[in-house]
Amino acid sequence: MLFFFVKGFAQVATETPAPAYIKTVQFYGNTAQSQLPLLRLGDPLNLSFDDIIGDEADYYYTITHYNYDWTPSVLAKTEYLKGIDDIRIMDYTNSVSTLQLYTHYELQIPNQYTTAIVKSGNYLLQVFDTDDELIFSRKFMIYDPQVTVGVEILRTRNLEFIEQKQVVNFNVDSGESVLINPEKTIKPLIIQNNNLNNTISNLTPQYNIGNQLQYRYDEEASFYAGNEFFDFDNKDIRAATNRVQYIELINLYHNYLYGNTTRADKVYTYNPDLNGNFAINTIQGNEPKVNSEYAWIHFSLDHPIRPEDEEIHIYGNFNNYTLEEATKMLYNPESERYELALLLKQGYYNYKYTVTKNGEKLPYNPVDGDFWQTENNYDVLIYYKPPGGRFDELIGVGNALSTSISNVRRN
Q: Is 82 helix (H, G, I), strand (E, B) or coil?
């Protein structure tokens, strides 16, 4: 009875946002830009971040395995990890010739202490200080490909949302293998634009054709499409560009972006982007990770004042899509615009505006709008826990861009 009581109240893992002095957390696998790590078993995992206190503080990391629903798995650490964790991050370098001093930390797994992660599934990487206080944490996933996942993006059939929503259809082909009782043992997860705050789960297969499972939902697998991300590039921190209107040097550089306007009531316009991600870069040195400056980026939005229970936030992977006080814009009655300044490292950034009501993000976007034509990236993750299995395996991943969106459904 005690076992079932504890299991029923198992704590669900959540990500801990980085404090104000930890900047530019980049988490990725084999990509040039920071994004949600979705790794094939055996691929390296990379983490980097800056401490703008710049005192070469000591930081330690741990890795923990979780179930599909982010409750702790029953696996012992020795079952999913070769080597040890709770090890100090040894690779760190101080910034060079920058106005803002910082210490840059890097971690790659595998390394000489943590030599391999040997099980698929969900993981949480936590970073602690010398007092064993949690500084921040990030989720990542590792898959062991055992099935093929085909993904197709469509317009919704619901006429009420046909201009605003995209639908994700997919199939799971297990080939020669047999997935036992898939209605109970298979758990899909759909992720839009690498954002774990914007997912769909708890879908069961609608059709079972041989060893292929078909998921052809409409409303249950539909996402508000949003709009293309805004962007800016300040790799040349001293020069104005088509996104940066002008620059000031006041202790640190201040980059004032051209103001944005409300797009919800406008016609959709395609704009190439990184689907919310960012990449660090500078032309002021050969090593962007330690030569890049930090600058105050000034955002402004021409939008009527929202009701008192609503807030407008800057949203993007630059802070892991976290809605916090630091991303909240304030309405300036003199300029009649929403304004905010963020301290960001030089590079290329995607961002958009999102609205919260009573602290919760609205599913639709009254500022940027939602357009079915928007180019979005969708990942479909397939978890499997066979009868007698001890943990949720991640056995397949599929991906699709909505650039090939269609309103015609395939048979």
A: strand
